[in-house]
Amino acid sequence: MSDGNGPNAFKVHEIMIGRTRFPSNVLMAPLAGYTCFPFRLMAKRLGAGSAYTEMVSADALKYNDRATSKLLYTDERETVKCVQLLGSVPTVFERAAKSDLLAPFDVIDINMGCPVPNVVKAGEGSALLEDIPRAAKIIEACKRSGKTVSVKCRLGMNGQKIVIEEFARMCEASGADMITVHGRTRSMMYDGEPLYEYIRLAKESVGIPVFANGGIFSKEDALKMAEKTGADGIMLGRYGFENPLIFAELTGHECGDTKYSLLLEQLELSSEIFDEFYVLTYIKKLASYFMKKMPGTKQLKADMYRCGSVSELRDVLGAIFKGTEYAD
Ligand SMILES: Cc1cc2nc3c(=O)[nH]c(=O)nc-3n(C[C@H](O)[C@H](O)[C@H](O)COP(=O)(O)O)c2cc1C
Predict the structure, then answer these.
(1) Which residues line ligand 1 (CB under 6 A)?
(2) Which domains are seen in the chain, by residue range?
């Protein structure tokens, strides 16, 4: 993809991140409750250079419970495996990064952006923006696993406390192989236009690849983000889930898929791996995101949410999507 104009026109290309080759520089963000294995596989098949697991507590790995093992599910079909860890204690990160549970993963991404109050109170996520020495130790601890290490962060805690320049330099000095900058502060949560100039500042402050994230809801937004920040690549969040076909559109991947065909594919794939309750929850979420811009879907959504089995859900999805532009 390129708008063909100007020195900052965005080019899609493969990119080396530390020891790991990403087939494209258009990535799918971690989204808690959404970026499960089937979704990640689909995003990559459509052109995403990588897709991240949702955040997993570094500390919770020691329990190896069923909830965590679902989050960490991967197999040989997934290439460029990236796991995101959340936590605040460097030794806990090191133990997690070196653990057998994470052995299949090529890349460890460290969450330094989550704005949720309980997370911040625990000194995790975006709280690390205000504890730069600790953040540095966490990166160094993860690097000792020998894996590729990336950091995903925000600009600062609020508009008066923007730290991204110093933070980006610290990430590079501590050994991070890449930084994804969500161009909002913690207090902006998920709203408002990203502050492009600060993503650009991060890009200009370091030599490692910088990816730009936040507020990309169309191809035009993607081009604008790339143009305004000069970033090495972009990462899509909510819109990547709403319309995974955007990855094919941005990267020029040929695919004959429709939103309906993707839903059926995801239904089959997730049924192969997960229990029926999980499949129903996941597919209902995905279908309702896919229906975001479909007019008059209130009743259809209610019908869908009532489905209690996969076969019933398959029939209802057919009734909703067949014959619409989402199935052509
Ligand atoms: C429902 C939801 C779950 C999220 N979960 C995570 C997460 O697990 N880890 C993370 O680093 N960011 C998480 N994020 C933030 C996104 O990765 C992304 O940075 C943010 O949504 C901005 O991008 P967007 O405006 O394109 O959606 C989440 C965001 C949402 C809306």
Answers:
(1) 29-32, 54-55, 84, 111, 113-114, 152, 182, 190, 213-216, 236-239
(2) 15-251 (3.20.20.70), 259-321 (no CATH)
